[in-house]
Amino acid sequence: MSGFFSIAELGHYALVLALALSLIQSTVPLWGAAARDSRLIRVGSATSITTLFFVGLSFAALVYAYVISDFSVENVWANSHSAKPMLYKVTGVWGNHEGSMLLWVLILALFGGLVAMFGGNLPETLKARVLAVQAWVASAFLLFILFTSNPFIRLDPTPGEGQDLNPILQDIGLAVHPPLLYLGYVGFSIAFSFAVAALIEGRVDAAWARWVRPWTLTAWLFLTLGISMGSYWAYYELGWGGWWFWDPVENASFMPWLSGTALLHSAIVMEKRGALKIWTVLLAILTFSLSLLGTFLVRSGVLTSVHAFATDPTRGVFILMILVLFIGGSLALFAWRAPSLKQGGLFAPISREGALLFNNLFLVAATATVFVGTLYPLALEAVTEEKITVGAPFYNLTFVPLMIPLLLAVPYGPMLAWKRGDLIGASQRLGVAMGVTLLAVVVTLVFTGTEGVLPALGIGLGIWLIVGALNELADRSGLTRGAGRHALSRFMGLPRSAFATAIAHAGLGVTVIGIVSTTSYQIETIRSLETGESLQAGAYTITYQDFIPQTGPNYREDVFRLQVSKDGEDLMTVAPTKRFYDARQMATTEAAIETFWFSQLYLSIGEPQEDGGVTVRAYYKPLVTLIWIGSLFMAAGGLVSLTDRRFRVGAAKPAKVRLAKKPRTAEAGA
Amino acid sequence: MKRLWIPFLLALGLVAFAPAGQLAGVSTPAHAVEPDEMLDDPKLEARAREISAGLRCLVCQNQSIDDSNAELAKDLRVLVRERLVEGDSNAEVRQYLVDRYGEFVLLRPVLDAENLLLWVTPVLALLVGAFIVRRRFRQNASATEPRLSPEEEAELASVLKKDPAE
Known about the structure:
The complex is a heterodimer of chains A (670) and B (166).
Chain A: H1 7-35, H2 38-67, H3 74-79, H4 86-91, H5 97-118, H6 124-148, H7 172-201, H8 206-237, H9 248-273, H10 277-299, H11 313-337, H12 352-384, H13 392-409, H14 423-429, H15 431-448, H16 453-476, H17 486-492, H18 496-521, E1 523-529, E2 534-537, E3 540-551, E4 556-566, E5 569-574, E6 577-581, E7 586-590, E8 592-596, E9 599-608, E10 614-621, H19 626-642, H20 652-669
Antiparallel strand pairs in A: 1-10, 2-3, 3-4, 4-5, 4-6, 6-7, 8-9, 9-10
Chain B: H1 5-23, H2 42-52, H3 71-86, H4 90-101, H5 116-144, H6 150-165
């Protein structure tokens, strides 16, 4: 034992208290809901908020230990260094297995606390059951942390210096990417808790969908941003400008995103039409199950990659048990209770519901594709000891073809009427979008004739999504039906949800254009340059000037200065860098990235060459930023949808009062 | 058509950005390899690149040897080029690497009995889903068809019987 008290002990103690509270929350509200005892039911809200407080306190204690470089805490010693910049001391808290699990639980507690605080308009018993289910998850993961991944273990004697953080993680990306990703991942736990609570209650209706949708939307929004940020981080950090690898760790976050997107859409059908109830409940369970699966894949060390810090098999087995318990349990509950849920809301195949079902069909097939692609190699190795790789070429042949019909259909969805739609009518109203799309394909072909037809069609697909979204807004404001000067006021009067749909769908189109353009029209030049020599990347001339060795706080670096010019005119001097981190004996490349409009010039330094030159990798990536700008639009669409009147907190209350009165008058009439 | 200028202009603006983004530039063939590895024969080098993009850097996370700057990736790139200079076909080069490192080296798993489930899942998922959806619609359609009560059936039958006589 260390001779002195550390703040870490306080964090440890708070975590144990949080577990005790979660165990109470797991049971008492359920009992209360079954016995219709309001006092027991209210325990749920109180424990939820207190758990959030104690997990928050525990997390703050760990952050503090990192900030003051308290190396008596093993976790701090193993992942920090006194000379590390303050930002990375703080972000280093979740740059390791134990700390990131604590962040996971903190976010879980945060969502539980939010439901307790803002779920005032929920029926008492439903709220109690939701909070109880949420506490089951919290208890399981708190046990996991305390038994296998405790970040508060102390060292004696206290080491003088820490081992520093993995250099690849010493980046602003670590400050943003994991918290966003976890807000998404873990946020789906609410949809899960609602689904399980509904199964326990034996009742789901349109109101249920209305309560679940904002939470799902919030989680989806953060997951979108988290995945997008992670992609941009890989893009600038890895030194050759790849932005998606179909790596199992990426897939782990992409699967819940795909099924979460499906869930958002099926919940609309359930809310508006009362149809697809059972399916929506199942999707809610599956989406969080995929989040749990992702946590297992990344945290258990079953995959070997940068993200998988965990190597201890006891952890893997523990998470696997959580996985089996929750996924198996919830699916068994579903199989038992779902048949008793009433199906409602009939619709024709060609209808808004039909279109959303089409969306679900393709998104779920895509999820299944990523699922087997990720797990098949593991399963095959376990059974036959044969190792295979499932890489980008597999997904290009399977995932991409699944996306094409889906994306083509997107603009049709909002154009079709509920219950029974008119495909020909919708096509006519989409005429403008079709015309513009065709024009876009032709224009692209004219400028890039040599690159083939397929990329041009890809660009056209993106334009189709964007113009289709605008077309829908124009149509709804009556612009295409001769509303004339009334169109503007009608446009302003459209519900927020109409704008949300248009923004998100257009964002998807923007991303598609970025992806197609970068993959098809990228220009690469890799050459060995000596001082004064230059190379050409598209229209840009890059001249190697010199290199300067420098020393940073916890690294040494070689800064290479490159002169960028275009048409004989000097534009700028950029400095891609190679860094060497002493504590971990690791090197990183820091690329120089210059943005011109939506395109980027990406410059990085390779290996020194035998002829004494330095390898310069220059990539011109046309419209590459659209990949991430599009995702910002998608998230913005989610945000706008959240502000829609029907979700605003408290908006449902007066409606509830009015509804409560109605039956009485009806009775009087009867 | 006059009123449709807003979406039209916006779309045109987006299209206009594409050429501004140098789409018109002539792309120079170059590779994500170190300059000293490259072959002098551009045709062979292009083939080397095509093969490399489908081979996994064994120590990396799902990266091809063409994209990775790991030592091993470099060795494999050189090996691929050596085999090509020896006169191997693309398939022979791949087979050579599979013999040495196993199927693990291929980023695109071969379609054989062992990997059948992997390859058919996307199609299977879609078909099974479509089948379930179709069955549901059929059930709904038959459920919603207006059914006549026994009395109505009897009345209908008697009307139909009478009809030709009148």
